[in-house]
Amino acid sequence: xxxxxxxxxxxxxxxxxxxxxxxxxxxxxxxxxxxxxxxxxxxxxxxxxxxxxxxxxxxxxxxxxxxxxxxxxxxxxxxxxxxxxxxxxxxxxxxxxxxxxxxxxxxxxxxxxxxxxxxxxxxxxxxxxxxxxxxxxxxxxxxxxxxxxxxxxxxxxxxxxxxxxxxxxxxxxxxxxxxxxxxxxxxxxxxxxxxxxxxxxxxxxxxxxxxxxxxxxxxx
Length: 220
Hints:
Layout: E1 3-10, H1 16-24, E2 27-34, E3 37-44, H2 45-53, E4 61-67, E5 72-83, E6 90-98, E7 104-113, H3 117-122, E8 125-129, E9 133-138, E10 147-150, E11 159-161, E12 172-173, E13 180-186, H4 189-219
Parallel strand pairs: 1-4, 2-6, 7-10
Antiparallel strand pairs: 1-3, 2-3, 4-5, 5-6, 7-9, 8-13, 9-12, 11-13
């Protein structure tokens, strides 16, 4: 479990003007909610970047201290970041309060490993990932950074479903167990022919470009 210490400031006023001033100071308006309590706060923009770039990403457990008299402390995770559609800059952050002894539902990315590329290529097998993440439930300290999907034993026509994923101890699957994660199928003859034609066309284009360059060089 990855944790990040985060200091926040209490935010007593709201509105576009207040939010704009905070962003000019390198901070972001935020809210901490969950378990019957809500706090309006502000966090540093650089801290949001630290969380997003951490290995656990949005599932990083935050050791949050809210400055004040007295200061308040809580554990939280990042729930949502509102983004400006034009500038693509963050506008507002939602943090969810978690209790370390209470299970929480989170979305965890899938990590595909051991794809038998040579075998699939030789057999003209096409592998299609259908899910990039799954929803699980566990204690905050047990949140995995990713769930590994081993592709080594897959054969043509196989469908790997969510129920076949190997989850760490203490982690329960919430995604529909029948949900397909990845499928394999024989490449249709038309698809194979298209790929071959595309390769030939690319080769012909390359040869034409080389010939044109040679002509230009001769004219010089």
